[in-house]
Amino acid sequence: MAAFDTVIRHGTIATASETYKADVGIRDGRIVAIGEALTDATVIVDAAGLLVLPGGIDSHVHISQPSGEGIVMADDFESATRAAAFGGNTFVMPYCLQQKGQPIREALKEYHALADRNCYVDHSFHLIVADPTDAVLGQELPALIADGYSSLKVFMTYADLALSDLQILNVLSVARESGALVQVHAENYDAIRFLVDRLERDGNVGPYFHAKSRPIPVEREATHRAISLAELVDVSLVVVHVSNRESMEEIRRAQMRGLTIYGETCPQYLVLTEEDLKDLGMQGAKYVCSPPPRDFASQLACWEGLQQGVFTLFSSDHCPFRYDDPAGKLTPRARTSFRWIPNGIPGVETRLPILFSEGVSKGRITLNQFVALTSSNHAKTYGLKGKGAIAVGYDADIALWDPKRKATLTQANLHHGADYTPYEGIEITGWPVATMLRGNFVVRDGQLVGTKLGGHYVNRAPR
Ligand code: DUC
Ligand code: ZN
Ligand code: ZN
Question: At what angle do helices 296-307 and 245-256 cross, to 10 degrees?
Answer without folding.
Answer: 30
